[in-house]
């Protein structure tokens, strides 16, 4: 039951992000998932939501994150008529973007840990 409540908290932020995204769509186009993540990050940073309130579901989702990339991978493979030249470009873009994402994530995590240690 605890995991369902935690999933409800995360889904609540996603739905709120979707509503907010639809409200501001005439001004700026921001995907609802991104808006929900920003709202969730703000809630965690300000202490509205405590880490312990979503820890179990977060660990579960992060431990199984590769599962969420299966539909995208199958979609890429399902594209018919993809020539070798285009396939090479898609693979190169995927590799470069993965490396950049890993380094940015590493840098942000390092900066946040350093900042947290300074507070304590």
Automatic annotation (TrEMBL):
Protein's UniProt keywords contain Heme: no
Topological relation to the membrane, as annotated: Multi-pass membrane protein
Pfam families per UniProt: LrgA
Subcellular location: Cell membrane
Positions of transmembrane segments: 30-49, 61-80, 86-109
InterPro entries, alphabetized: LrgA/CidA
Keywords for this protein: Cell membrane, Membrane, Transmembrane, Transmembrane helix
PANTHER family: HOLIN-LIKE PROTEIN CIDA (PTHR33931:SF2), HOLIN-LIKE PROTEIN CIDA-RELATED (PTHR33931)
Name the record gives this protein: CidA/LrgA family protein
Organism from which the protein derives: Fusibacter bizertensis
Native organism taxonomy: Bacteria, Bacillati, Bacillota, Clostridia, Eubacteriales
């Amino acid at each position: 039951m605890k995991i369902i409540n935690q999933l409800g908290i995360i889904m609540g932020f996603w739905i709120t992000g979707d509503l907010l995204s639809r409200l501001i769509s005439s001004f700026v186009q921001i995907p609802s998932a991104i808006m929900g993540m920003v709202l969730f990050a703000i809630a965690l940073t300000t202490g509205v939501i405590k880490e312990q309130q979503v820890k179990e579901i977060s660990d579960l989702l992060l431990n199984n994150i590769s599962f969420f990339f299966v539909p995208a991978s199958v979609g890429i493979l399902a594209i018919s008529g993809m020539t070798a030249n285009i396939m090479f470009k898609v693979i190169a873009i995927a590799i470069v973007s993965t490396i950049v994402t890993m380094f940015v994530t590493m840098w942000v995590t390092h900066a946040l840990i350093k900042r947290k240690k300074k507070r304590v």
